[in-house]
Amino acid sequence: MSSQAAGPSWRLLPFFSHVQVKDAHDAASSPEAFRSPAEISSTCSTSHGVAVADIHGGVHILGSTLEATYSWQAHHDGRVTHLIERKGILVTLGEERTSRLPLLKIWDLEHRDQSNAPTLLRSVKVQHGSRPDPVTTVALSSTLSHLAIGLGDGTVLLYRNLDQSLFSGSTSLTALPKPKTVHESSTEPITGLGFREPLHPTGSRVSEKEKEAEQLILFIVTTARVLSYIAAGKSSGSAPTVVDEVGCGLGCTTIYERTQEMVLARDDAIYMCSPEGRGACYIIEWPKISVTSFKNYLVLVSPPFFPSGNSGSATVRNYVARTPNAGAIDVSKLTILDMENHLTAYSEAMFTEGVRDVFLHEGSIHVLGNDGKLFRLEEKSTAQKLDLLFSRSLYPVAIGLAESEGLDPQEVATIHKQYADHLYAKGEFESATKSYVKTLGWVQPSYVIRKFLDAQQIHNLATYLQELHTKGLANADHTTLLLNTYTKLRDVSRLDAFIKSSTTGGHHRHGHHKSRKSQDAADIDALPFDLDTAIRVCRQAGYFDHAMYLAKKYKRHDDYLRIQIEDVGDGSVKDALTYLRSLGPEISLALTILTGVPILKAATNLVRYGRTLLSKLPDETTSLLIDVCSGVRDLVASSYGINGQPPSAVVNGKNGVTNGSGHSRSPTAGTGSGIPYLSLLNYNRAGGADSPTASPNPNATSSPDEMNEAPAPWTVPKDERVVVSEKQSTPSLHGRSDSFDAATVRTATIIAPRHPIPRPSQYFAHFVDHRTHFIRFLEAVAQNRWGQRIQPLSTSRSGDKKVAKDKDVDPEESEDQVAIWNTLLDLYLSAASDSAEALSNINPTEVELKQRAMNVLENQSGLPYDTMHALIVCSTHSFTDGLVLLWEKLGMYEEVLRFWMDQELHPERSITLSPSANSPTASARVIECLDKYGQQNPHLYTLVLRFLTSSPALLSRHTEDLKRLLNVVHEEKYIPPLGVVQILSRNEVASIGLVKEWLMERIQESREGVEADRELISSYRSETQTKLKEIAELSDPNKPKVFHATRCSVCGGSLDLPAVHFMCNHSYHSRCLNEHETECPTCARDHNLIREIRRDNEQVAAQHDLFLFNVENEGFSAVASAYSKGILGRGFDPLAQQLS
Fold first, then answer.
1. C-alpha closest to that of 751 among 715, 709, 725
2. At residue 635, does pLDDT exceed 70?
């Protein structure tokens, strides 16, 4: 129970003004219905107007002008004691001379009979026991479902389901449900009844359906106590329970509309009662005879008294001061209390001879005095009330009034702003800050911030800004200002509370059904401040722990690593590396954050900080880079993260499928176009931070075989696993070489990751001073990501198949593969080309490094390096074996020969490193290469002949080789004898005696050939003459042709008539020839062939472009061929034919 004093705390503010109501036809008098107040027994407000009952049993319905619209005799020969109306149904209780019991009548105001009286629905006697008792009070529920009547003997009768009875269609006037006696007390008369209607939490009434589910409470007030009875709903029908042991007099109870509480107006105080017990208690110590509820007001009326100037009431004193002879006339004081704002809205003592009744009409309070005067108390508008309060600087009251009146939130915020400005002007800054906080969302924050920018007001500024963030209305500038405020104050506790308390509440505001990614995004959205700004300001102020807390909690990996590496110092580099590993799958997960742009989080961070991490922790950073670029999912449990060994091979599902040989399908050598990344790195070839002079950590990595045998340290769904077998082994770069066992079969799990894997090429620049780790990184990534590794020549030549080129390979993946092997080749040769002193403390040796380079160049397993780049690298590092191998693979055999020739002729310019390359047998290499490549490249013989005859010493060593080559040239007809003579005669090294026998043989062969040609020409001439003679004979019409054939040329039988003879001396039976056949069947085939050849030659003769092309490529032989075919003859010239 709470108690609030009235007295001075109930400030008097004139929110009501009184106006005397006059008759519409007589401005000097009150309305006719109220001129005789002594005859008025009861009044009530209805939906049809004001109902006024008189002591003669009549009821009058007054309209808006308070003139009677119609009247009727409700109780004959009696009087009406009580009136109450709901939904157009008027309930009257009265007395009639014909009955000693009170009568209950129910009228339908919506319908009237012929006498203009409302329809009488029911008329029954109110009886409890045999003795009649007067009715003291009545209550009707808003739904007409329940009617309660209180009697003077302490009995309460309850009519249930009244609405069903009224609208059931029965015409019987007595058809009412039997009343239930819910309370009896012979010593306590009933002084008040009221139904507590169900309410929403907001205070508004519920709908009809909701009312049915709620409890309907009947308050029963006696002279000694207050009880509550559940009339409907759960637990209805049980005995009334005592609410309070305080009662009141007749007419001093009402139901407060806003809270549906029972109001008891006692002389000492006003009590508010709910079904649970007594509520608020307001001490107002003066006598009261009635109380009426209106909106959020209570209208209190005192009994008549004689006013005195010594009264404790200021209202009475004021009345005495302004009224002459005030003490001679008794008056009643009427007071209107604003229960929500705890103020007196009206108080006057001008009602002489007392107040007869108080009723409501058209939203105003009407007061009828015993002197017949009627006053209307008009409530001032909200704007007028606020102006009054502002003029008196009563801002708290104005705020309460605005809220109770239901003003727009923006208008309420405007009042808070005015109040805050008022407090700020008075110097009450903390109170002003509290008021400014209540304007958030309606008043621009900049308006308030400018007021507290003074250094002395920084605490209040922090308070306001923190509330601004709590409401979620802050922007990045506000966050910056607030955090700067905390840092200026050095208030770590408030900074912790702001950051950590704000970030811990977001996790419970979202359902568990959301995915982790959507949950993280929702948590960021729920933050009351801008996350990026908070991290930035904490960094700038030196509060690195707070910045790291936010970055780590909300997965701002870039910010977290930037703080760890750039701000905290060297000691946190290891923590940063551990954090990168802890990210797990997110280290290569493509996320879309706010902007929708995909980002490879760890890839971005490692590109930015990889060089720093390598300089501090090279082994661990290299292991992490290998895992990232290999697509390892669980980086914490990765083999690299535990013992420095790589995990099982991982193949990008987008770029290839491992074949049965254990190799990934990738482009073959020379097909890619990788960038020579190593040429962009400024390596210190004489030794650097990680040059070969530095002794590497023997435990930094294991041999590739050991790496391959390491089990996959993560768990992968079965549908993502592909089991393959591999029979491969390769010596370790760091000194260990494991022998290959052909019987050993390794089974590896190839994992196709779900998310894109970062490109290795973006990390190449970080290894500028870490050559050994760079080699380790490249070898491991190629092995784990694409299943590519170097195989010894002995192994690769044992029958392994080359990897077929995958047409579906991603171009970026192909470029990365080429770039890795290009760079590895450069690294091998750059390490091997260092001085012997630099190699004295490094393992592997120069020979091993070059052997690995040769294994790459051999490319038997399809390693996708760029051949042209490899040529440049081998040339730069003077790697002879590699150059020769590449020239051979590219078909540049002339370059191989010229290389060995140069080695022989200019040994001082030798670039070879191999002990066997700068030997006196370089010329022998020329002969070997010629024997190897000469058959497919005959032009090489000309080059070698010139080389062998370039010096006497060289010729003396290879005289026999020269003779053998001359024989080969002659046998294969690579060079004509004249060309050989011209080659040998270009200097004085080769003598005639050296090739005398060979020349004699060639001359003799030429003579024999000339003689054979002459004989052939002679035979052609004689044959031609014979043919011409035959043609002449056949063409001569005067010379008959005699046929001597005796057998058929088809069937071979004896020739008989009829027979057919042809000029070609072939004869046939007529039956052996087809009908209408005019050409010799035997010679037709040859003739057709000749005609086809001539037709083709004619067509070719018209194709001038083809003829010119043949001349450009074949020279005079094309012209001679054209003459031989008759193409250039006049008979086949299309132009000549057109002209003719």
1. 715
2. no
